[in-house]
């Protein structure tokens, strides 16, 4: 099984369109005002926005960046306001936090090998 896409609800798709394009996602479907879909620049996964009043604020989406600090600097220059600067976390990821126009929490991060293989990973024999 492989994750294809994540969809979040957003009242204002025009604001979402601008925000996620600034993050570097590439549009592949523009059916505003009801739906938009982007492809992530790396990895082939996609991300979409569905127009609606409900939702927002309860979703967290993680986007992995090979050079987190450079990416955050570029986004700040583009006008994105971050809630937290890149910081090393005790779970061995480096993260920066931002909120989209609907209040969804977006975490840009770099985890390297710790993404899928942290030192505390459950042994394969116990995962069966």
Blueprint (SSEs and pairs):
Elements: E1 5-10, H1 13-23, E2 26-31, E3 35-39, E4 46-51, E5 60-64, H2 68-77, E6 82-88, E7 94-99, E8 105-110
Parallel strand pairs: 1-4, 5-8
Antiparallel strand pairs: 2-3, 3-4, 6-7, 7-8
Characterization of the model:
The protein is an alpha/beta fold and 128 residues long. The chain has one domain: 2,3-Dihydroxybiphenyl 1,2-Dioxygenase, domain 1. The chain is 16% helix and 37% strand. The chain is built from 2 helices and 8 strands. The chain has a 4-stranded mixed β-sheet, with helices on one face. A 4-stranded mixed β-sheet has the order 5-8-7-6, with helices on one face. Strand 6 and strand 7 form a beta hairpin. The radius of gyration is 16 Å and the shape is globular.
Summing up helix and strand content along with how strands pair, one would put the structural category as: alpha/beta
Q: Which architecture does the CATH hierarchy give at level 2?
A: Roll
Reported for the largest beta sheet, the result is: 4 strands, mixed
The helix content is 10-25%
CATH fold field value: 2,3-Dihydroxybiphenyl 1,2-Dioxygenase, domain 1
As a whole number of angstroms, the C-alpha radius of gyration is 16 Å
Instruction: Name the beta content range.
Output: 35-45%
Tell how many strands the DSSP assignment holds.
8
Low-confidence stretches: none
The average pLDDT score comes to 89
Work out the helix count.
2
Termini separation comes to 16 Å
Q: What's the SSE pattern?
A: EHEEEEHEEE
Specify the CATH homologous superfamily.
2,3-Dihydroxybiphenyl 1,2-Dioxygenase, domain 1
InterPro entries: Glyas_Bleomycin-R_OHBP_Dase, Glyas_Fos-R_dOase_dom, VOC_core
Protein name: VOC family protein
Organism: Ensifer oleiphilus
Domain VOC: 2-111
């Amino acid at each position: 099984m492989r994750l294809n896409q994540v969809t979040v609800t957003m009242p204002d798709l025009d604001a979402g369109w601008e925000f996620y394009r600034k993050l570097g996602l590439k549009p592949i479907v523009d059916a505003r005002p009801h739906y938009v879909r982007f492809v992530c620049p790396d990895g082939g996964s996609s991300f979409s926005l569905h127009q609606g009043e409900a939702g927002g604020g309860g979703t967290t989406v993680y986007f992995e960046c090979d050079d987190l600090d450079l990416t955050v600097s570029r986004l700040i220059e583009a006008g994105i306001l971050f809630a937290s600067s890149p910081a090393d976390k005790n779970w061995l990821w480096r993260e920066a936090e931002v909120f989209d126009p609907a209040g969804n929490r977006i975490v840009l991060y770099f985890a390297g090998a710790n993404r899928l293989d942290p030192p505390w990973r459950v042994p394969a024999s116990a995962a069966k």
